[in-house]
Amino acid sequence: MRIGWGFDAHRIGGDGPMLLGGVEVDPERGLLATSDGDVALHALADALLGAAALGDLGVLFPSSDARWRDADSRDLLARVVADVRQAGLVVSSVDVTVVAQTVRVTPHRDAMRATIASILGVEPSRVSVKATTTDGMGFIGRDEGVAATALAVLIAG
């Protein structure tokens, strides 16, 4: 068994939609990033890469490379999953926590779990999606950004 942890954060800004876990959670606001800015999928991809000791998102998809501008984070995660499988590992379970002040995850949780499970090739029961706030503290509390953490457990495939 291998365990990896990931983190990502982006500023709120620009046009929507805001995507989290591959699902539209805010049609009006977006996240500023090279790709679509889906912090939940970015944190999860980094957790998978960490568990497999395959580097990180910045190594695989550098923001300095124009190929990744406006990239769909679902596609990036799918590429990471393929690399993990090629390394002889499969996803056992994942746990994602979105940290946001005003973005609401609960109405989208089941869709996020289903989307993530589909990309990972696992049952939704192996995908946890949670949310929390910072109770008004810091850039997240001022509603200037959104962050996510993720934990991934891989097993030999």
Give a verbal description of the structure:
The protein is of the alpha+beta class. The chain has a single domain, classed as 60s Ribosomal Protein L30, Chain: A (2-Layer Sandwich). The protein is built from 5 helices and 7 strands; from the N terminus they run ββββαααβαβαβ. The protein has helices spanning 39-52, 57-60, 73-86, 109-120, 138-141, and strands at residues 2-15, 18-20, 23-26, 29-32, 89-99, 127-132, 145-156. Strand 5, helix 4 (109-120) and strand 6 form a beta-alpha-beta unit. Helix 1 (39-52) packs parallel to helix 3.
Short description:
By secondary structure, this protein is α+β, with helices and mostly antiparallel strands. Helix content is 31%, strand content 34%. It has one domain (2-156): 2-C-methyl-D-erythritol 2,4-cyclodiphosphate synthase (60s Ribosomal Protein L30, Chain: A, 2-Layer Sandwich), CATH 3.30.1330.50.
Can you write the helix and strand succession as a string?
EEEEHHHEHEHE
Percent range for helical residues? 25-40%
- Any guess at the CATH architecture? 2-Layer Sandwich
Quick one: CATH class?
Alpha Beta
Strand order of the largest sheet: 4-1-7-5-6
Rounded to an integer in angstroms, the radius of gyration calculated over CA atoms is 15 Å
Number of strands: 7
The multimeric state of the shown protein is: single chain
The percentage of residues in β strands lies in: 25-35%
Any low-confidence stretches, pLDDT <50, length ≥5?
none
